[in-house]
């Protein structure tokens, strides 16, 4: 029998790619997503839970978790609201998933994530990475992408401006400095799924590593 996957952050840039690629994968018989509002997506392998408060009571036994939750302080409205989405929710997902049998947890963090970072965003991502280690998943996969490329539902001016400016230099950046070159969301999703095929312990995927894995 194939595996069962859980995806949180399924409506975001990387999350949508994860869902699409997981549904196409022969490794998974079922893909569960948790959303705030029903997306009414239709696929025989796809199952939806509406509301994180329903996750514990509605989730079946699962194997692998893919966490692509993330926002910005501007969208969240405050640092505390940002931490609720980028720190507290991913940890709650880890707790519930572990109770439902999950042995692998793949999470999207950020380039520069560190407990000692002077930047609030990177410091929160560092807190998340550190806290996830405590759950002792058989395999914890941490992705640290650089600037993400792809079609977002919401417009983020700073990211869009950086994407436009860097686009003419994309091939040069990939060749010379793959760690800082912008990366397509579909490549991050693909790298996370590839890394989930096997392995154990804590595995950190840098942006350059994910670029190479997608070639």
Automatic annotation (TrEMBL):
<dbReference type="Pfam" id="PF13460">
    <property type="entry name" value="NAD_binding_10"/>
</dbReference>
<feature type="domain" description="NAD(P)-binding">
    <location>
        <begin position="9"/>
        <end position="117"/>
    </location>
</feature>
<dbReference type="InterPro" id="IPR016040">
    <property type="entry name" value="NAD(P)-bd_dom"/>
</dbReference>
<dbReference type="InterPro" id="IPR036291">
    <property type="entry name" value="NAD(P)-bd_dom_sf"/>
</dbReference>
<protein>
    <submittedName>
        <fullName>NAD(P)H-binding protein</fullName>
    </submittedName>
</protein>
């Amino acid at each position: 029998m194939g595996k069962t996957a859980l995806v949180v952050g399924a409506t975001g840039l990387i999350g949508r790619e994860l869902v699409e690629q997981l549904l196409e994968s022969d490794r998974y018989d079922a893909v569960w997503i948790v959303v705030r509002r029903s997306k009414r997506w239709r696929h025989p392998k796809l199952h939806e839970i509406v509301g994180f408060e329903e996750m514990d009571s509605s989730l079946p036994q699962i194997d692998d978790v893919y966490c692509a939750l993330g926002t910005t302080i501007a969208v969240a409205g405050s640092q505390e609201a940002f931490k609720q989405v980028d720190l507290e929710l991913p940890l709650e997902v880890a707790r519930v998933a572990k109770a439902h049998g999950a042995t692998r947890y793949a999470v999207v963090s950020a380039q520069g994530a560190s407990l000692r970072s002077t930047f609030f965003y990177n410091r929160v991502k560092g807190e998340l990475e550190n806290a996830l280690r405590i759950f002792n998943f058989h395999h914890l996969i941490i992705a640290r992408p650089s600037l993400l490329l792809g079609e977002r539902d919401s417009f983020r001016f700073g990211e869009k401006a950086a994407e436009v400016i860097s686009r003419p230099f994309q091939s040069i950046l990939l060749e010379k400095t793959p760690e800082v070159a912008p990366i397509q969301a579909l490549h991050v999703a693909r790298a996370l799924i590839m890394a989930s095929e096997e392995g154990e312990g804590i595995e950190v995927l840098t942006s350059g590593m994910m670029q190479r894995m997608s070639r």
